[in-house]
Amino acid sequence: MGKKIFSGVQPTGNLHLGNYLGAIKNFVDLNNEPANECVFCVVDLHAITVNQDPQELRNNIRETVATFIACGINPEKSIIFNQSAVPAHSEAAWLLSCVARMGWLNRMTQFKEKAGKDKEKASIGLYSYPILMAADILLYDTTHVPVGQDQKQHLELCRDIAQKFNNDYGVDDFLKIPEPLIQKQFSRIMSLKDGTKKMSKSELSDLSRINLTDDKDLIVNKIKKAKTDPLPLPSNTDELMKRPEARNLLEIYSSLKNSSLDNSVGEFKGKKFSDFKDKLTQLLVEKINPITLEIKKLVNDKGFLDKILLEGHKKANNIASKKIKKMQEIIGF
Ligand code: TYM
Asked: With the C-alpha atoms ordered 18, 23, 24, 26, is the resulting torsion angle positive or negative?
């Protein structure tokens, strides 16, 4: 039987190699399995949990759609839409926020990281954003949610919320309990400047990540400057545990090559970082450059991108509006 897939990506600009290897590459594989029904959402409501410039947000929404398509998602096969165009998302988020418990949200590590020291000044939206994420998933009777490792805790919360709604209202199985789809390997791509920190679009230094819009020269430069350590490459994966930068670069290489970490370690054991970096750069350019060129072409075709969003939103709205109506009836409205 096919899976019902839902996942989302924030349109905050600078989609990077972490987003690609941790999530979007899997969206493409899931999209290519004929039996699956896939919904891929540009989560613009999530983006405004921190300040956004309206014109930049509009551009970034289109660029995210362009990235989905450039990476290989087929809009004829999968629904692609932006979250704010389907009102049921905001509404379900409210309904579910009356089910979710403060104690559960207080445990979310991503909020703690993002809010930093000054929690008092973080938006309420940043705090409650995992509830909106649960709404996204549950409106589509999703069975599987492909994401990177950093979203695992939010998915566990989503499952708890669904379970509590079903229990509270005595509607067994009304909200479907989704399974996370997190790759066993390469689901957490790290910064090129610090192998212990996640590659992230909010990191100040652009040298810390490969953006999907970086041209060949930028990729060459960023890999040249990527942090390493003074030793030659190790001969087994155990040694990598204490060498986070070497591990991250080898993981990126393996993931791009669809190969195992063991194979890559075998390929480069005892070699100098400069030799390995040459091969890594070559592979990155080979895999990322065609995507970059396609994104650059597609972002100029606003009409095409808007048409995809319009068609996607009609289909998404059709599904989500029915589910929210049933939720309202269950609640007593
Ligand atoms: P976002 O926009 O931060 O990231 C999009 C996807 O990319 C993955 N990712 C990574 N994977 C590996 N290594 C990294 N360094 C890395 N950085 C990001 C994320 O895990 C994610 O899968 N809240 C979500 C978006 C969302 C969503 C949803 C996801 C909203 N509603 C419903 C699934 C289902 C987010 O902010 O992702």
From this structure: positive
Taking only the tens place, the pLDDT of each residue in 151-190 is 999 999 999 999 999 999 999 999 999 999 999 999 999 9
The answer to whether the CB of 143 is under 6 A from ligand 1 is: no
CA–CA dist 251, 229 (Å, integer): 16
Report d(CA 242, CA 195) in Å as an integer.
10
Task: Specify whether 198 is catalytic.
Answer: yes
**Across the chain, which distance is largest between two alpha carbons, in Å?**
68
Instruction: Annotate 210-260 with DSSP letters as a single string.
Output: -BTT--HHHHHHHHHHS---SSPPPSSHHHHTT-HHHHHHHHHHHHHHT--
The answer, yes or no, to whether any atom of ligand 1 lies below 6 A from the CB of 9, is: yes
323 touches ligand 1 (CB under 6 Å): no
- Tell me which of 176, 201, 227, 287 is the catalytic residue: 201
∠196-187-201 over CA atoms, to 5°? 60
Which atom belonging to ligand 1 lies closest to the Cα atom of 149?
A: 20
- CA gap 312, 315 in Å, rounded: 5
142 lines ligand 1 (CB under 6 A): no
Closest-CA residue to 110 (of 49, 175, 69)? 49
Q: Quick one: which atom of ligand 1 is closest to the CA of 199? A: 15
The enclosing H or E element of 25 equals helix 25-32
* pTM reported for the whole predicted model: 0.97
For residues 45 and 81, the answer to whether their CB atoms sit within 8 Å is no
Active site residue 297: no
Q: What separation in Å is there between the alpha carbon of 280 and the centre of ligand 1?
A: 24
pLDDT band at 64 (very low <50, low <70, confident <90, very high): very high
